[in-house]
Amino acid sequence: MNRLIYLRRMWVALLGISSLAGTARLAWGAQDVPPSFFGQHFFRPDIPWPAVSFTSLRLWGAGTYWTDINTAEGQYDWTHLDLFLDLARAHNVDLLYTFGATPRWASLRPNEPWEDHPLGGGGAAPPRDMRYWDDFVRAIATHNKKHGGRIKYWEIWNEWNAREYWTGDTATMVTMAQHAYRIIKSIDPNALVLAPDAASDAIANATEADNWVADYTNRFLSAGGGNYADVITFHGYRHRPEDINSMVNAIRVVMAANGQSAKPLWDTEGSWGQNFELPDLDEQAAYVARSYLLHGSKGVERFYWYGWDGYDESKPRNDWGTLWDPRRGGIQKSGIAYREVYQWLVGATMTSHCAVQSDGTTWICGLSRPGGYEAQAIWNTAGNVSIRAPSRFRQYRNVDGNSVAIRSGGSVTIGMKPILLETQASEAALQVSPLAPRLYPNPWRADKHAGTLITFDQLTGNVTVKLFTVSGHLVKTLSTSSPSTTWDLTNDAGDPVASGLYLYLLTNDQGQKVRGKLAVIR
Predict the structure, then answer these.
(1) Residue 233 and residue 39: Cα distance in Å, rounded?
(2) b/e per residue, 377-398, with b = 16+ CB within 10 A?
(3) Of the N and C termini of the chain, which has fewer Cβ atoms inside 10 Å?
(4) pLDDT, tens only, 59-84
(5) Cis (ω within 30 of 0) for the bond into 443?
């Protein structure tokens, strides 16, 4: 068959299949993709703040381990943690703190080899006295509240299925979760406690990786751990981004079997892994974009990339998922891809899942925005192939940050790096005045939106947001130069606000203003 005719027929078939791909659960239902979907890891508080958008930063590998802070019984060094608390407040992001790394003085097996930290052994063992654990959880939660309360999420342990991080048993992990849940909630009732995460990076075979992560998720939940977790978590390191589908499926089976299906599922750490495993910069960019598209498609409500500044000067082969590297000129192709896919997704509605098509290598995801905007993210895992785009698509964007016009009936090339086919309405839909921000969810309801912040999105320039009671009392002031900012439903003192109607006033650096109302229902 003539290759061009074949490709035309294939494209028609692909469009037909993709229209049927949205029957299962998407991450946000019929809602817009929120900025909170994009999480990040940032390890060095002394370098420039990341030049990409995200609303939540996870603290792991950043000098904030249990052993870094709790230097002896009853003694705490908050210096490094406070750097991140201050940065989070300055840039209006929330923090996810992950517990792990038992101090040697508190360890059940202080001489057990542990190479992940220069302070020595015992870090993967549980504490020899649960009192040490309780004291640390209480101390850090109290310190966080006094320091502005930027830590909103608390993950019980890092990668407890790997002996590198945990050599205890399931019963002890559940007991630690029970104690931490009680203590944290007593200090901050609005905090979310996350289950300990399981990781897959040590196993190459996708099925084995799925089973390993699902098994440890089941161990925790079947032992009663679900009673002490508001969110279920995992670490989605995969050799192919597309393999995240089978892993999420395996975890959801376990969640359902343990009565936990209604809870959010977050990937709190993932990337292609160590950079030497995927050295090609274009393949790295492709991996980032496909990962976020596929996570959202599979109903994962947050995905924390590992990491923005993942390079290691002292151990070059220990670089992880690096989006920014000063040795290579700063932001990498992968960082630009992250920035672009953020713009593709945030504020858009995923109208259909990312689904593989009949050729076995082409993937399509459907998106829409108000005003008649329609888009399809599309890529081919086998390599470059030329297709003819349907006439309604007038341009496409690529992960390198470029927009390319499509002549009517013209051909486009798809490959491992996704492109976003767009209708002509794209410019009007994507370029929003700072005086017409998007606000969601509104109303905010505790029974539907627990763990979700109220987001003011599609902002440009420097914007100040002031929130008032209906009687005119100032409740909260937010400032941002980013495309979005979030309100954590607290006042300037860090206390949760009550149910009610609130007024907001947005002002940009040119003195233009916009006013509106929002409701909080607890």
Answers:
(1) 13
(2) bbbbbeeebebbbeeebbbbbb
(3) N
(4) 999 999 999 999 999 999 999 999 99
(5) yes
Determine how β-strand 385-388 pairs with β-strand 411-414: antiparallel
Instruction: Express each pLDDT in 442-496 by its tens digit.
Output: 888 887 777 678 888 767 667 889 888 877 788 899 887 666 788 888 898 888 8
Which residues are CB-neighbours of 48 under 8 A, at least 6 positions away? none
> How far, in Å, CA of 12 to CA of 26, rounded?
24
User: Cα–Cα distances in Å, from 377 out to 18, 311, 355, 380, 413?
Assistant: 11, 30, 11, 11, 13
Give the span between the Cα atoms of 311 and 193, in whole angstroms: 30
Residue 23 has pLDDT above 90, yes or no: no
CA 431/CA 483 separation, integer angstroms: 11
140: phi > 0 → left, psi -120 to 50 → alpha, else beta; which? alpha
Rounded distance, CA 436 to CA 18, Å? 33
Task: Give me the helices (H) in 188-280, please.
Answer: 206-222, 244-257
Angstrom distance (rounded) from CA 144 to CA 142? 5
Average pLDDT over every residue of 17-38? 60
Contact yes or no for 350/369 (Cβ under 8 A): no
Give me the DSSP letters along 388-440: EPPTTEEEEEETTS-EEE--TT-EEEE-SS-EEEEETTHHHHH---TTS-EEE
The residue ranking higher by pLDDT, 481 or 340, is 340
Helix (H) or strand (E) holding 500: strand 500-508
CA angle 387, 391, 395 (to 5 degrees): 75
Environment class of residue 30 by beta-carbon count within 10 Å: exposed (0-12), middle (13-18) or buried (19+)? exposed
Contact by Cβ (8 Å): 177, 228: yes
